[in-house]
Amino acid sequence: MAHSFWLLFLLLSSATACDQCVHQSKAAYFSSDSPLSSGACGYGSLALSLGGGRLAAGVSSLFKQGAGCGACFQIRCKDPKLCSSRGTKVTLTDLNRNKQTDFVLSSRAFMAMANQGMAREVLKLGVVDVEYKRIPCEYKNQNLAVRVEESSQKPHYLAIKLLYQGGQTEVVAIDVAQVGSSNWSFMSRNYGAVWDTSKVPDGALQFRFVVTSGYDGKWIWAKSVLPADWKTGVVYDSGVQITDIAQEGCSPCDAGNWR
């Protein structure tokens, strides 16, 4: 019943989502990558493996109380003398609490928007006008992964972090059960990309995820993820890939002239 409500709520609430539209805003940058890798999504040092160091903090409408963690965006600054028309791709790893800009980028991502030889000039600006749109994340030959957090305490408490979520999607609910069992327990979003439960089934564990993309939503079932002797700090392959692309359910919008 709980997940039926989740699906209905999310399908209705995302019916006006225009993730593929181009949005106008501003972007600043952090001189150090540390705030982004240790940010509100909880990726830690693993953040650098998500977007090649091209990371971003996004405002609350993009962060979506953690559901936006791992989302990918194409972003470009609007000064044609300094910046390329292609821009760069970034991965959202933190919440941007600065309401003056939609994004705060890693310095690597900020410089990647520049034309050849202009990176330092772009950095000197500090803040630039940008346009951006959400794009599918692509992790070639990489399945969705589950990392067991160090706070987990077998057999009473399990906390996991989702990594390498592909497509243009958001995981909005997770259930866990013993492999071969239909007795599912729901997990709660602790923060960012971290989910937890105090009702940990015995034995090897399977997961099912409620995934939304635009106005569409579905279940994805990972039938065998954690072994019975799962350990903290270890990243486990889910055996499934998420590649869905958002289906727009809104009025026609400017998709931009992106190459």
Automatic annotation (TrEMBL):
The keyword Signal applies. It comes from Hibiscus syriacus. Its main location: secreted. Pfam families: DPBB_1, Expansin_C. This is Expansin-like A2. It is found in: Secreted. Keywords: Secreted, Signal. Coiled coil: none annotated. The keyword Cell cycle does not apply. Residues 156-238 form the Expansin-like CBD domain. One of its GO terms (biological process) is anatomical structure morphogenesis. InterPro entries: Expan_Lol_pI, Expansin/allergen_DPBB_dom, Expansin_CBD, Expansin_CBD_sf, LolPI, RlpA-like_DPBB, RlpA-like_sf. Belongs to the expansin family. It comes from the Eukaryota. Residues 1-17 form the signal peptide. One of its GO terms (cellular component) is plasmodesma. Residues 38-142 form the Expansin-like EG45 domain.
